[in-house]
Every structure is written in structure tokens, then in C-alpha cells.
Amino acid sequence: MIDTVPNPSEHNQWYPFANRPVPPRHDQQPINPAVVPVFDAVRLPESARFVVVGAGVHGLSSAYHLAMYLERSGKGKGSDVVLIDKQGPGAGATGLACGCVRNLYMTEPLHAIVRASVEVWESDPVNFGFQQVGYVSVGEANQESDYVQLQASQAASGYPSDLYVGADARAFLTGLWPDFKTDNCDVVLHELRSGYAGTHMAVWGLDQKCHQWGVQRVYGASVNGYTRDASGSVTAVETDQGAIACEQVVVGAGAWTPQHWEWLGGPTQIDVGYPDGHVEPSVDMWTYWRLLEGEVLLPEGVDFRTANHRDSPVLHVELMNTPVYDQDNNWLKDNFYSYVRYAAERVGAPGLQGGTIPVKIGPKAAVEPYGHLNDEYQAEDWFADYYCATLGMLFKRFENLRPYFKERRNGGIGAFTPDNVPVFDHIADNAWVIADSNHGFKMIGVGKLTAKMLVYGQKPDELKPFGLGRYSTNGAFGDRNSHCPWV
Ligand SMILES: Cc1cc2nc3c(=O)[nH]c(=O)nc-3n(C[C@H](O)[C@H](O)[C@H](O)COP(=O)(O)OP(=O)(O)OC[C@H]3O[C@@H](n4cnc5c(N)ncnc54)[C@H](O)[C@@H]3O)c2cc1C
Question: What is the pLDDT of residue 28?
Fold first, then answer.
């Protein structure tokens, strides 16, 4: 057994509420460490039936469910599954996500993915840190027909929500929060099963479950390639600690997906065909975006509770035609996009966490060091002003929050697909890639669906719409009326 993995950054991720100092300089590039203490990890075995690469939400969930289904079905043992991460659980986006769990998508097949995922969150809310507070999204009149369509599609996929329009929408908002300023708020969707999860708790819970079901967890081994036979099948995963022969690979590599994709022979550019018949030629398979997020402490006497003294739902507001001004009436931006959730577990005191629309980088990005450690991906100064201004425009109680913005390192990047919708597919006959286009913390159920497919042999319906083949058959998604790539 090994209990520790290298942490050249000397950066302690286990206490998210502490400040995040700039890491000391090292000859080697600092590396983002695991977000939970590593325990009972093992050395790399020579072979395994299943090798799962990456201990983020998808790798952890895949490994846990694979081990569980193998044991329960008698088709194998939990120890047939080897999970490899170059650092440890949560060292990528999963360890620093905002943790919002919602089903607000114009891409209808995602509703079933999120429903299947919320079933996993609901299966052990305590150990996954899942707070089922609900999710309230608010739009202007130009989004009304989208919300109507979205609610019908959510209901059809077994995920009911409540829709309010016009005066009813405004009454719903002030009923929930009496100091809510309803200007330009014309339509509201309330998802009762949604909420948020504390990311470190979720990572801890998933890692524990992998351990309990007998997964061999190899932390501190870096994959540096895949050996493939003449037909393209993977015969071994190569690491800096040697090779591991395997029958089946699952890749959940988050922002590192483009590198693994290339090693597995995936295309770097593809033609993308849309349902209206138009085809965009030679589109980059992966485009990096960086996320703009931050945290705000709540001043003495200010809370984020509802009129009934309950924890607030996660709130998401996009007002596409409403400019944002600060308290002194200075114009900041010509549209409004903001999300917020209560985040004491993150901030270390009563506080809020949220953000706005991410910023496009391009097909290449410096992935190391990941997340908070990377100077290149810290939000610019305008973000704190903008974010606090949006909160003040929504709530009387949140006016003048700017001095309470938690000035510390934040951020992270993600690899997006050509239509910003996940790709879940085999890149070789025995190599399954979970590429969530960087909105998949909530999609914890994809690992469960993946495990079902690999143990029982049939692809679940929920996964079928997300194959790579959609781009060559005019099935690309992307029909959305939003400034944000994730709606
Ligand atoms: C700031 C931010 C906020 C977000 N907020 C939300 C949100 O509110 N809701 C939501 O649903 N989504 C959110 N997301 C997106 C979500 O966090 C990611 O989509 C999801 O966590 C990705 O999970 P993953 O398992 O694919 O990858 P990751 O969590 O990145 O894990 C990949 C793992 O693979 C390992 N790895 C990579 N390469 C190798 C290698 N060569 N060898 C060994 N190991 C390797 C890494 O060390 C890492 O631990 C957010 C993302 C960011 C950056």
C-alpha cells in the first residue's frame, strides 16, 4: 500500500476554505494535488480486466459502479477494476467545480442523462454532499418559448419541474425571496430535484465507495500512452510506472482528454453536420474555455435563505438584453448572466459561490498546472465587480457585496466538444471515452450507465444520442438561445 502521492506544489487542497497562496517555484512544474487524503492506494498491477483512467467524477463513478455490478452479478470481482490517476481523487475539474446540479438544457437528450445522474446523487446524498435544494432559473421574455419546450422535455424524461410566466414568475420569485428585484424577469423554471454538491465531499464519497467495492486504486501513476494492436484495440495502458495489460479501458480525463484522444488515434479535426443540412468543415475536435467563478462572504446579519428560512435553491439568471451596472451606476457589461449557490462548505463561513459565462481560449491550452495553481486562468479584475453587481441587481440584501468578495485564486479550464455537448463513445472497440464538454460534475450517472453497458453488454438508451457519429450524420446539437455554451 502507498498512503501518499507526490505533491510538488506544497499546496494543500484538503481545506478549501483556506487561502490559496501562489505555489512556491519548483524546477518541475507544480501539479494540482488530490483534494482528499489518499489512503490504501496500491501499486500498479501487471494486468487487469478493466482499467479506468482518471479519478474525477467520471472515472470514480465508472470504477465504483463497475466493481459493484461485477460483484453483484457474479460476472467478476471488484478487484478486476484498476483506477489510475497521476495525482489522486479530484485533482482535476471535479475537485474545484461549483458543484451545481441542474437540468436546464436545450439539448433534450441531456435531460435523461441528468435524471439518471440525480438518481445517483439521491442514492447517498450524505456521502456525496448532495444538497437537494432545487434550482431556479430565470429568463427574459425572449426565452419564454425555450422554457416551455424545456419543461415539457424534462417532464417527458421523468424530471418534472414547475414553470411560471409573467406576473406568476415575479410572484414566485418574491414569494421565495421577498427582497428579490424582478425587473425583466419574465419566465422562471423551478427544478425541485436539482441542487448542488460539495465537491470535496463528493470526491471523498466516491473514492470510499471504490475502496469498499474492491477497486484497485493506483494514485500517483501517470499514463503516457496506450499500446494498440493492428485492429486499433488497446492491449495495454502505458504509465511512468510500467505497462498494465487490459481488456477494456474507460477514459475520464477531463481537461486532459485531447491528449488521451490523440494517443487513442482520435481525429483532431472533424466535419460537423447540423440538422438543417449545413456542414462546418474541419472543426477542431476540442476547444478550451476557462471558467470565471468566485466566492463572496456574507456580511454579519445577511443570509441566503428563503422567506420560509430554508436553504435557497441554486439560482441561475440570464437576461440577454439587460446590461449590468454597479452600485455607482457604471456600465459593466451589456448582458446579465449569473449563477449563485450557498457555499459555506467551500468558503469556510456563510458565503456564496458562483460565476458567469466562460471565456473561449482555443484548441490548445496549458493544462498544467491545473486549476487554481495556473496564473494564466485567474479571472481578470472585472469579474469580481461584475459578479457582485449582478447579485446586487437581484437582491436588496446583496447590494454592496463587493468588499466581501473573497480575493483568492480560483478558476479552471475545460475541453469542449464541437457542439459543446458531451461525447460518450468508443474511440476503439475496447476504449470508451467520457468527454463531458466541461459541464459534467452533475453527470455522475454517466459512470453508472457506462458500467451497466460494460458488465451487461447493452448500451443504455440514455447514452445513445452522444456518439461521435452524430457529427457525420447531421446530428450535431447546438440549438440554444443563450450567450452561454452550456444551455
Ligand atoms: C471552475 C469550474 C466550475 C465548474 N462547475 C460545474 C458545476 O457547477 N456543475 C457541473 O456540472 N460541472 C461543473 N464544472 C465541470 C465539471 O467540473 C467537469 O465537467 C467534471 O468535473 C469533469 O470530470 P472528469 O472526471 O471528466 O475530469 P477531471 O475531474 O478533470 O478528472 C480527470 C482526472 O484525470 C487525471 N489524469 C489526466 N491525465 C492523466 C494521465 N495522463 N495519467 C493519469 N491520470 C490522468 C487527472 O489527474 C484528473 O484527476 C466546472 C468546471 C470548472 C473548471
Answer: 65
Q: Which among 58, 61, 98 is the best mutation to test ligand 1's pocket, defined by most ligand atoms within 8 Å of the CB?
A: 98
Bigger pLDDT: 486 or 391? Answer: 391
Measure the CA–CA gap between 5 and 68, rounded to whole angstroms.
26
Pocket test for ligand 1, best of 38, 44, 94, 446 (most atoms within 8 A of CB): 94
> With left for phi above 0 and alpha for psi between -120 and 50, is residue 74 left, alpha or beta?
left
> What per-residue confidence (pLDDT) applies to 373?
87
Enumerate domains of the chain plus CATH numbers. Answer: 47-94+200-282+419-473 (3.50.50.60), 132-193+287-416 (3.30.9.10)
322 CA distance to ligand 1 middle (Å): 32
Do residues 62 and 94 lie in contact, with contact meaning Cβ atoms separated by under 8 Å?
Answer: no
pTM: 0.97
Is residue 26 scored above 70 in pLDDT?
no
Q: Residues enclosing ligand 1, CB less than 6 A?
A: 53-59, 84-87, 91-94, 96-100, 222-223, 252-256, 291, 293, 411-412, 414, 436, 438-442
Phi, psi (deg, nearest 5) at residue 286: -130, 135
**pLDDT band for position 365 (50/70/90)?**
very high
Query: What pLDDT band is residue 486 in, cutting at 50, 70 and 90?
Result: confident
